[in-house]
Amino acid sequence: MARTVLTVQTPIGPYPTNPVGAGSLATTYATGDNTNGNSFPFTGRELIDFRNTTAGAITVTLTSAADPQKRTADITTYSIPATTGLATFWAGNIVGWDQAGSFFIDYSATGLGVRIIRIPG
Questions:
Q1: How far apart are CA 87 and CA 1, in angstroms?
Q2: I need a labelling partner for 102 at 20 to 30 A (CA). Which of 57, 73, 94, 114 fits?
Q3: pTM of the predicted model as reported, rounded to 2 decimal places
């Protein structure tokens, strides 16, 4: 099955127009797709943020891609604790992570919140 594509969010700043309206700095979490996995369009300027509000720990796997030396280094089954678990990964370089223009994430269970923040370049 095809991976579910996550919406990438780009924050405003560093010099927003005044006044900054209510809600204009808000970002949202999507629920990770533990059946099909997720992907997002990857530029190498993304911050991946996870939030677990479920009653049990959930693991995530960030799938790497072979670098020019054919090395891979997946982050596998990284555990995010129950109730208030938070984790953040900065995908700051496409080398070693680019999956033909996408980034791949997989989950052990449903309910994990994920948001992708693209830092303006």
A1: 27
A2: 57
A3: 0.92
